[in-house]
Amino acid sequence: MIQALSTATDRRLGVLAVLLAIACCRGADAEDVLFLEGAVDFDVYAAPALAAPAEEQPVEGKDDDGLNAQAKALLQQYRPIYMSKLSGHLYALREVCNPTREQQEQLLESSQAALEKAVREYAKQMAAGKINRGIVVINGMAQMQGQSEPWDAVRNELDKSIAEHLTEDQLALYKQDARDRREFRRQAAATNLVSAIDKQLSLTEEQRDAVHASLLKSWQESWEVAVRGLLQSPQYLPQLPDKVIVPHLNANQKSVWKAAQRHGPVFFGDNGFMGHGGLQVQPFEPQDPRPEQDQPRGGNAARPQSTDGGAEA
User: What pTM was estimated for this model as a whole?
Assistant: First the structure.
């Protein structure tokens, strides 16, 4: 069976690689195990710790007026989740670009303001029943105009603030890191898809390589979230074009592929993949930049420690 890419965690990239072992239905032998690898863009390796959340408390200085009770409850639920995600991104950015304290303060201020506004509006719309009715949102990417998750607005504001406040050299580092992230996620997602297809069709090594290359050649960004579907069900497959898969199959495999169930777009919001608030990244706090002699910080840097004193997995 297919062996996915080795689990690589590059602290500079700040990408969490998720390794799943799923026993095949043909038997329990070690050789009948699929190794699926995907990527969750959460930047936790650049953050100082993952902590179990304290009981949710009202945030001082946050004006919840104008929200009904349901919207207020949703705001209290989603605000810390997206703040954790923002903190993770800012920790990763600091690792890559080493911004000054003033730059960090500017980035944090603008992105926090965008997050608060976006989460409040999201809570209002969800309480009013206007979210995810007749539309599909995949990983923050709306499939119809006018629908998005809060992270869209935060990401857009953060990108604008980065372009405004970073130097040319820092911006070049940030853009290269973003390209590296995209390529890592693309490769990991393609490997997941090949693994899932292989489980159904028993591909040869040559077929696996051919399908993998074909997927990358015709890549669609929406396929990147396939790992989330596979976490829900090892049988999950998105709607992959036949022209990408079928030319590399034999007659029997083509028959199985034709009969296989493939799924249309499915809602995979971030909440469930951030532990429904059960895991929170320590809030980002600006600090002085690293001395020149300490740069650069790469993948060999020590990983952050968990709250129990052990190294992060």
Answer: 0.65
